[in-house]
């Protein structure tokens, strides 16, 4: 079954998901973040088929999320590393992991805990406001129209509804 492409949608979430690919990709990104950088390590850790991993890595490389770097010349062997775009995905992966810990945690407990290197404390990943640092919840967010919103696939109704809503006035 061929997957639908979201690349032409007028929605940053859809286009981002199109770049990431499928359910395996966030797990591959997580493993690369956890320094499992060799193909065989990824196969073993994830239990993914070699063919599927090859396709996912190729797509992640094409989309600028992962890079392939030679670490041995004879025979040539490669390691996979997150690019800047891939590293920028890590907070989103951590937030999804925290959500999974809350709503789908294995009976035995969280498989991975996170420690903030700067302060040395274990933490629960959260999304915060980039201005005031308050935690973000669904109830604390008001979507407003952006300059790229249009009645096109991905935001066909959303753009119109946001425009019809009261305009947002930033706090001075």
TrEMBL record:
Key words, A-Z: DNA-binding, Transcription, Transcription regulation
Residue ranges occupied by any HTH hxlR-type domain in the UniProt entry: 11-108
Sample GO molecular function, one term: DNA binding
The keyword Kinase is assigned to this record: no
Superkingdom to which the source organism belongs: Bacteria
Pfam family, one: HxlR
InterPro entries reported in the protein's UniProt record: HTH_HxlR (IPR002577), WH-like_DNA-bd_sf (IPR036388), WH_DNA-bd_sf (IPR036390)
Xref: PANTHER family: TRANSCRIPTIONAL REGULATOR, MARR FAMILY (PTHR33204), TRANSCRIPTIONAL REGULATORY PROTEIN (PTHR33204:SF18)
Name by which UniProt lists this protein: HTH hxlR-type domain-containing protein
Organism: Methylocella tundrae
């Amino acid at each position: 079954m061929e997957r639908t492409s979201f690349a032409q949608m007028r929605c940053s979430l859809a286009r981002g998901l199109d770049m990431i690919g499928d359910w395996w990709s966030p797990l591959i990104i997580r493993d690369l973040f956890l320094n499992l950088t060799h193909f065989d390590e990824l196969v073993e850790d994830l239990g993914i088929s070699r063919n599927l991993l090859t396709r996912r890595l190729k797509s992640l490389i094409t989309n600028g999320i992962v890079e392939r770097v030679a670490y041995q010349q004879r025979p040539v062997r490669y390691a996979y590393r997150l690019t800047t775009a891939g590293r920028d995905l890590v907070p989103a992966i951590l937030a999804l992991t925290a959500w999974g810990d809350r709503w789908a945690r294995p009976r035995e407990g969280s498989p991975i805990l996170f420690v903030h290197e700067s302060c040395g404390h274990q933490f629960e990943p959260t999304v915060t406001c980039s201005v005031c640092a308050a935690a973000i919840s669904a109830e604390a967010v008001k979507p407003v129209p952006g300059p790229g919103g249009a009645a096109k696939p991905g935001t066909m109704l959303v753009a119109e509804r946001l425009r019809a809503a009261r305009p947002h006035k930033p706090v001075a």
